[in-house]
Amino acid sequence: xxxxxxxxxxPVGSRERSSPPGTAPPVLTLTMNPTVDICCDVDHLVxxxxxxxxxxxxxxxxxxxxxxxGVARFGGRATAVHTAGQEIGQRLNRLLDEExxxxxxxxxxxxxxxxxxLFETExxxxxHIVPRGPRLDDDEGRRCLDLIERAAGTHxxxxxxxxxxxxxxxxxxxxxxxxxxGAGSRLLLDTSGPALRESLHEAVYLRRCNRSEAAYxxxxxxxxxxxxxxxxxxxxxxxxxxxxxxxxGELGALCSTVQGHMELHAPPLPGxxxxxxxxxxxxxxxIVTRLAEGDDPVDACALGVAAAAASMLTPGTExxxxxxxxxxxxxxxxxxxxx
Length: 339
Fold this sequence. Notes:
Helix content is 34%, strand content 27%. It is α/β, with parallel strands linked by helices. Helix 4 crosses helix 5 and helix 9 packs across helix 10. The longest helix is centred in the middle third of the chain and has 15 residues.
């Protein structure tokens, strides 16, 4: 790991670690607003008095970091680019070092956020409490663009995932897409809200939208494969993506390219669903791992649907089980839609 320009603090865990020539990980991920996830179990939440909790685990989190972790679970290799600020940023770096995730940290002045994941054992419900995070200034945004562009040159695929921190323009991912294309890499983008809408002005290789993000783009509810087809066709026709994937929760996902549309029906879960937090990150991790291995997008998406299903069997943001994901993959039913 290397830490870039951490202001006014010692670069904890900043030893240089680089791959031998010609062996750079094929996947690079970007997390602009990472978290330190503190995950706890509680018997039940109370509104008066104290709720006693048992800490399940503490881990670095955020879209791109979760994707890098998922790639490693599938036996691939990834480098995570992320921001890191102040004391919590130093803790984030230490957690990534301890976990063995290759990463490049861009130092920022603001404090990296902490998120809290509560799993109520009596109700079997998860609660994910996520602050907005630090505010980045223009210079920090430019430095991050420069860092991701330099790093992308040695990686075939780049995944940009998660929300943007305050202070960055809504079209930040548009600038990321231009830099990635200029570096000769392929970008997979998974974001939401205004950052998603503004990013449509620049082509990327693959876009993933969940139902709420697809509804945001379409201006109407997206509940079925037919609804998803309309959104994907819109993205392809606009030249916003070569591969468009809309996920439909328990139904599965629709994967669309210029060659056609594929319905990927989710397999039955072998257990009780506990949380959908992290399902999208697990899906993207599976997809980019398989793409880096040379699979076509539909086969890669089949494993992605299985990984999303496996993620639902773990509480909170706890990572999916690789063996469960791979066992579910053959049960993903693929149906090609007529053009």
